[in-house]
Amino acid sequence: MPKIEYNKAFVKILKKFLQKHPELAERFFERTKLLAKNSHAPELKFHKLTGDLKDHLAISIDYDHRLIFYYDEKADTYFLGDIGQHDDVY
Questions:
Q1: pLDDT band for position 46 (50/70/90)?
Q2: Cβ neighbours around 61 below 10 Å, total
Q3: How much is the mean pLDDT over the chain?
Q4: By CB atoms within 10 Å of each CB, which of 28, 32, 48, 61 scores lowest?
Q5: What confidence tens digit (pLDDT) does each residue in 10-43 have?
Q6: How many Å apart are CA 82 and CA 90, to the nearest integer?
Q7: What are the distances in angstroms from CA 7 to CA 32, 78, 82?
Q8: What is the pTM of this model?
Q9: Which one is the CATH code of 3-84: 3.30.2310.20, 3.40.50.300, 3.30.70.120, 1.10.357.10?
Q10: How far apart are CA 88 and CA 72, in angstroms?
Q11: Closest to 78 (Cα-Cα) out of 67, 87, 66
């Protein structure tokens, strides 16, 4: 099962996000657990990105909010990078 890694920059982004959207805290943690357990669960809407973010992946937290990350195969780890509204993170 892949690991989920947060760096200091992401923790700062996450804190701001959860201050604005405290109602999504539980959902964020549920989605990251599911990502580690079954990344292709339909409710995650797991997808590859294109353009400048072509090396990154994303899942849906809810209809408007996305979690951006990349996967390191050697480390079997998802490194979280950004979270926010669709138009803000892409």
A1: very high
A2: 22
A3: 95
A4: 48
A5: 999 999 999 999 999 999 999 999 999 999 999 9
A6: 10
A7: 15, 11, 11
A8: 0.93
A9: 3.30.2310.20
A10: 24
A11: 67
